[in-house]
Fold this protein.
Amino acid sequence: MTDDDDLRARLRRADPAADLPPYDTSHLLETTMTATTTAPRRPMLTLAAAALVLIAALGTWFLLRPSGDPAGPVAAPTVTELTAPGIAAKCVEPSADRLKEAADFAFAGTVTGVDGGTVTLKVTKVYRGAAADQVRIAQTGDISETMLGSGKFETGKDYLVASARGSMLICGYSGEASAPGLPQLYDTAF
Amino acid sequence: MDSVNSEDRRQRFEAVAPAVIDAVRRFLARRTDPSTADDVLQDTLLVCWRRFDEILPVRPPSQGGTAPDAVLPWAYGVARNCLANAERSRRRQGRLLARVWRLDRPAEVVPAPDGPDDELTAALDALRAEDAELLRLWAWEELSPAEIAVVLGISPNAASIRLHRAKQNLREELRKTGDAAGHEESTEGSRP
């Protein structure tokens, strides 16, 4: 046992935090406890990174997608296609007012299929904008932080998606319908 | 969440937070550079605050409900995950950038008071990362095997067995580096 004590003592002498200067905790504590009551649940950085990733992914998809689309479904439902904004790498806290202001199209939908990079959603409710039966959006395979909720489109799940001039709004404005706060945001905005 | 409850929650958090902040700061200072440590400390505290109810099911203080000791292993576990996240996203930003960053800012981590113990550092480096972490939690954070188990999310039994082995391995490494006396800096080629 004494051997253990020796070992522990030797390790302790090498402790890099042994003489860490004192630190005023009150400020950090205050920001922490106030931050959570107002800030969205996901950290800003994640959202910013997610925005960039989605922009890149949608951009790539937009460039590579077939120009004509002759193989569309025969019944030809109204299809709305969304792309990503080329700006907005940083996110501010989502607010119903801004959503109301920015979004010209917003809907609730269920993912019916994920095919390669394209996600197809069956529209269940249009909050704002022209009625559509189907919406197609691009998804980046294994990137998991693009939206609120689980972070990506998965078949069978319900989503709330808003867009402005054909660009999907992220930064806390679109995501899984079960994501905390998102349905309320939509209810308040529309 | 009515206001009475949230006020009560606030007070309970405020009671343990300073001790937790101090401990987690040390935990991070031992494991990463100062600026990452700052960021991760904030993240960790935020997670602790949000999930405070999960660790401290409402218990009166008389029953140890707000004892910092009871919270610490859990908080270390949170810090560990936050640090792993931070390092993962940094790696994602580019391995080269990360390397430059690290080279540019040589460990501002305060050197040990008695001067660096090169042999010990080399021996720790030679161990498996998991073993070295167990030893740090044991010696630096001064945790018992049961508490280490909480941090690492393993069973107390496993923690205690692994800790025992890690100590043996460290002694073994120290013996090896001791034998190879005069051989400094490089850990390469120090194999017998």
User: Anything to note?
Assistant: The two ends of chain A are 69 Å apart (CA to CA). The longest strand of chain A covers residues 105-115. Chain A has five helices and seven strands. The domain at 78-190 of chain A is CATH 2.40.50 (OB fold (Dihydrolipoamide Acetyltransferase, E2P)).
